[in-house]
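ARCHIVE CARD
SHELF: 3
SLOT: left
DATA:
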Amino acid sequence: MKKQDKLIMRRILLTLFAVLFIGWFLFWPLNKYIESPGTADSLRSYVKIKGHPDKQKGSFMITSVYLQQARPATYLWAKLTPYNTIESKQAVTGGQNNATFDKVQDFYMQSAINEAIANAYKAAHQEVSKRYLGIYVLEIEKNSKFKKDIKVGDTITKVNGQHFDTAQGFQKYIAKRKVGSPLTVTYLHDGHQQTVTKPLVKIANFRAGIGIVLTDNVKVHTKIPVKVNPGQLGGPSGGLMFSLQIYQQLTGQDLRHGRKIAGTGTINPDGSVGEIGGIDKKVIAAHKAGATIFFAPYVKPSKLLLKYEEQHMTNYQLAKKTAQKSAPGMKVVPVSSFNDAIKYLRTHP
């Protein structure tokens, strides 16, 4: 081979190597996820209540965290950029595939919306009721005998022909049976009722169980029709802000007084507000969107609690620290309940 041919070949190989490296650097998926500040969106377009439009100025804003699978390039970017964190795929998805993970997040969002509707309607003295559908399946344990039949996203409505009004009712009934004894489970899969009989397995505390991780599946009914469309958002953390938006529209009260008010937190049946993840990123998103008030879940800190908290700070502590450093002019307000938020808005016009 001539010297010139060797030189050409070397250049071709170097170019090919460079192209492959750039492709790997930009596109190769890593077993990591990047969490970064998402958006703060007005809830005005998310909530529609018949006969109760939102005519007040300002906005209640739902905040989000942007989640993406890391590539070498974005991994490096996340390392060099503030308010980005890198988590293992296992920590983020719990080992679930993308479709299953998205399905669970969608259910969490719908549950949050249901609780927000219930809390807001009760506070507004409007008619609202709940109907317990059954057990929503969040995860199937590896030792479960039902794993080839029941899937994540299914709802168990009966066991041995009996329906209960709470998950505890189902659990107590099953716990009285012996490991290995057959159990007939009736469940909904993609809206279709199915039945399967399999033996129970040993679960925690040596009790008999189906071998699933579960939560309640509840349907909310209101006299005044309400529709809430969360778009592409998932997870339970929008509960508090949805409840505030629904309450203001139902009552017609002007709680915002023209302000952009953001926040986060789960909402429970008793109106209490629960902590969430990534609150520092949500503060940044709210600040970029022009919010001047940010509602943060409050729990009393203790040494044991702080040991397991994100960055060893409660939601309120982390939100306040982030605002002081990177969101000047934003007031972080601690709330333990829906009523706390309403009281603050009424007393701080």
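SLOT: right
DATA:
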Amino acid sequence: MRSRTGTRAGQYAALLCYLVFLAFPFLWLLSTAFKSPRELGSLHPTWIPRNPTLDNFRQAFDEQPLLHAALNSLLAAAGAAVIAVVIATPLAYVMARRRTALTRAATGWVVVSQAFPLVLVIIPLFLVLKNLHLINSLFGLTLVYVVWALPFALWMLAGYVRAVPTEVEEAAAVDGAGRTRTLVSVVAPLLAPGIAATGLFAFVTAWNEFFFALVLLKTPEKQTLPVILTHFIGAEGVADLGPLAAAAFLATLPSLVVFALIQRRITGGMLTGAVKN
């Protein structure tokens, strides 16, 4: 009993340390966003601002078009998430249920594609989008995000499909449902946690992405929020720390809100009451 209690206490202690490690950057960013310029230049920084101020937020909105950039990021990220999930769901079903040479090749492509660095594909990607007249286009950027998120989305959803008992599909077939009807009416609802997790992954990846947006978007009115954040850094590399922290803090909120809204879907039981008796 003592050994079990000690093991559980160690697990909780390790989890607490991990949570502190994850929360530290966010909390420090929040503290910096509310500090005055005098406190930001202090040689003895404090966790809690002595004189909290909203001037950094006002200055950030005055200097850069944060709302417009956030709207651009939202359109690209949400579009990429929806399109990736719509494409990946039926493809993942085929990959999981039909073990053919084609599906094995697709699985290999999913694994290999994750090994390619961004810088390796940016030049051919730029040339392809240029020929399609999609440079400096949010639609073109959204397509890039879809292609980049699709391999991992396929791999992730295929694992969820394999967790669905085949008895569920056999019961649907006995009731006269075809493959498409089975996927839409029976399998897809059971994949709700997986679809939510995959959509969240695609959204957060696109929302935080910087490199593609920097290269493919040229005019300020088309740029996304991560690119706009770099404008708070001067030509000599000196950052306007207060407004930068305020803008970066605001940029993290949508990801947290999206996760909070769908976390029940992610953690909920996927197959509760699904199998016919």
